[in-house]
Write a structure and sequence with these properties.
The chain is mainly α and about 120 residues long. The protein has one domain. It has 4 helices and no strands. The chain is flat. The model has no long low-confidence stretch (mean pLDDT about 95).
């Protein structure tokens, strides 16, 4: 089961990198451009997100991960990608709330994966 979980998680990390840039990257560099430019660019980036995310979910689901487990993995990975993105790329300050949210997600992982 671990190889499936690790492969699924790796694909979801890659997917989330694309997703985070598609959703938030335009706020840094395209804020002065017309909205349609940001939308089209975000859709283009989102294509690559889906090209990785769909196979990740299929792999995980075919490997006997439940939908709930896949969703919680997705959320934990989203937070794990978002925090460095917001600090390093968007230059926002670190917030202690990220730690508390992360701890809540650890609890969610425990409950969704326990037997």
């Amino acid at each position: 089961m671990w190889p499936i979980i690790l492969k699924t998680a790796l694909l979801l990390v890659i997917s989330n990198c694309f997703m985070t840039f598609a959703w938030y990257g335009h706020l840094k560099n395209l804020n002065s451009k017309p909205l349609i430019i940001a939308i089209l660019l975000s859709w283009g980036i989102a294509f690559f997100e889906y090209a990785v995310q769909v196979p990740a979910n299929r792999l995980g689901h075919n490997g006997n991960l439940t939908l709930g487990q896949l969703k919680i993995m997705q959320e934990v990975i989203t937070l794990s990608v978002f925090v460095p993105f917001s600090i390093l790329y968007m230059r926002e300050s670190f917030k202690l709330n990220y730690v508390w949210a992360g701890l809540c997600m650890v609890g969610a992982v425990y409950f969704i994966f326990r037997k």
